[in-house]
User: Which sequence fits this backbone?
């Protein structure tokens, strides 16, 4: 297949992208692909290197293929954008994990096979940290339970209720230590 | 077969447990300028003075290039960190059992070492220093994701435990590649010891845990321990098999001859010869002190060697002299 741009060289780069549900395809030679700007501002091509960060950014680039809305957002603490995180394979700060959790989650799942830490907890002020975390999780669970009830999915709602009970019980314990 | 080796130290040179930690108040190092990094270094230094005054504070900007690279050769910091000048520091215990990289990939990378296969010992040391630091510093942590790290591949325990292995027979038989494939399925990874993507010069490999989220430190260490024991056993079997081959036996003796009599050796050749000599010693073909050979595998590396004033002129000559003297004195 010839490059759709210059119609001279063989097309070696094939791009399919979906933006807001509308798909488009491009077949370009290496030089025209470079010049097209399709990779600038959008998401970089996944680069699979030996460096784990590179590997990670490769994964992310794949899974975050249609996130124009999210890419404009920046972390309120360090100012990183999702685009920067994907390009560098480095997360900007601790808070980025909250800010971009939804976008990072599928990749984290894929890299680690799990999304639940088990192991050591830091000893510095564990109560405050766990309270903040619990408050956040409780809020999310309560939103989910409301949605489950609206959808009349009572089985899921019952499970969520148990989870909330467990968390609230846990918080009392932590507070009383 | 020579007498039993302690802590598998015929195959396992050393154990390292590394913990990554970040201060909640600062962006991760890649988002910090030099001033920001210096602040992080100062905060960690102040904490270290309070909890572990025996740790020496080394500003990487004030080190000569050779000294910095030698730290990396002795695995006390990463190769990338050795290239750092401004905004990076190392906390180092005199006996080199604890080193803490400040503002490497994470704010804090605490490493504890032990000779041979000693995962529990190294973990307990790393754990105790980490706990002491956590009383002075506010570590970024989430109940769900564990310790928060700059690279998401380290989330969770943020613990990388590794053992340095000498696998001359498995490497020579071309079995390390297959080994790497099968252990990757078990959440572990093996690579050449001289950095990511490096060739395994001197048949030195680093085996470490890969998965950090959803698995406790203990479980990861037990995994690594079990696989290390299996690899060590495979290596011993392969060594015996290999040394039955007269061509290999000849190579081993020739290596000893060169090590004892050569006048100039570059570091690559020295590593290859030392590795062969170690193979001969492990398999019982040569009577040589293995610990001295393994020590030389670090001491002949270019930067470490250059710190010796005797190496000022001709480094390859100094390397050959060092090896000759050590092997003469030890045997």
Assistant:
């Amino acid at each position: 297949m010839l490059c759709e741009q210059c119609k001279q060289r063989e097309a070696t780069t094939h791009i399919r992208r979906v933006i807001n549900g509308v798909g488009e395809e491009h077949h370009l030679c290496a030089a025209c692909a470079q010049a097209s700007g399709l990779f600038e501002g959008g998401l970089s091509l996944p680069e699979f290197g030996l460096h784990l960060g590179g590997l990670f950014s490769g994964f992310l680039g794949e899974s975050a293929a249609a996130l124009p809305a999210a890419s404009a957002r920046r972390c309120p603490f360090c100012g990183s954008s999702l685009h920067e995180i994907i390009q560098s394979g480095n997360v900007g700060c601790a808070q980025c994990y909250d800010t971009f959790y939804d976008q990072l989650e599928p990749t984290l799942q894929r890299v680690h096979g799990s999304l639940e830490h088990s192991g050591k907890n830091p000893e510095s002020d564990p109560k405050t940290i766990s309270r903040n975390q619990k408050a956040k999780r409780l809020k999310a669970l309560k939103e989910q339970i409301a949605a489950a009830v609206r959808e009349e999915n009572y089985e899921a709602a019952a499970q969520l209720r148990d989870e909330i009970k467990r968390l609230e019980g846990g918080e009392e314990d932590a507070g009383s230590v | 077969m020579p007498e039993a080796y302690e802590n598998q130290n015929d195959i396992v040179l050393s154990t390292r447990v590394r913990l990554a930690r970040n201060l909640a108040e600062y962006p991760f190092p890649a988002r910090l300028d030099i001033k920001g990094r210096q602040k992080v270094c100062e905060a960690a230094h102040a904490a270290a003075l309070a909890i572990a005054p025996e740790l020496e504070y080394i500003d990487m900007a004030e080190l000569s290039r050779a000294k910095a690279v030698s730290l990396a050769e002795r695995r006390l910091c990463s190769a990338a960190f050795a290239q750092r000048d401004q905004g990076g520091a190392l906390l180092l215990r005199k006996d080199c059992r604890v080193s803490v990289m400040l503002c490497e990939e994470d704010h804090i990378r605490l490493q504890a070492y032990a000779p041979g296969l000693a995962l529990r010992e190294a973990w307990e040391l790393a754990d105790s220093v980490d706990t002491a630091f956590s009383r002075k510093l506010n570590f970024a942590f989430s109940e769900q994701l564990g310790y928060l790290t700059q690279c998401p591949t380290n989330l969770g325990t943020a613990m990388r435990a590794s053992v340095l292995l000498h696998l001359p027979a498995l490497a020579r038989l071309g079995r390390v590649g297959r080994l790497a494939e099968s252990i990757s399925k078990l959440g572990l990874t093996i690579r050449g010891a001289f950095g990511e993507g490096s060739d395994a010069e001197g048949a030195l490999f680093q085996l470490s845990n890969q998965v950090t989220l959803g698995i406790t430190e203990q479980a990861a260490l037990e995994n690594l321990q079990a696989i290390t024991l299996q690899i060590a056993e495979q290596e011993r079997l392969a060594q015996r098999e290999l040394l039955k081959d007269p061509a290999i036996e000849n190579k081993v003796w020739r290596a000893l001859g060169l090590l004892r009599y050569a006048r100039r050796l570059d570091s690559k050749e020295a590593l290859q010869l030392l590795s062969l000599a170690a193979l001969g010693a492990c398999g019982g073909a040569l009577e040589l002190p293995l610990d001295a050979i393994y020590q030389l595998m670090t001491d002949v590396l270019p930067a470490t060697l250059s710190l010796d004033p005797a190496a000022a002129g001709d480094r390859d000559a100094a390397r050959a002299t060092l090896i000759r003297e050590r092997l003469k004195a030890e045997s």
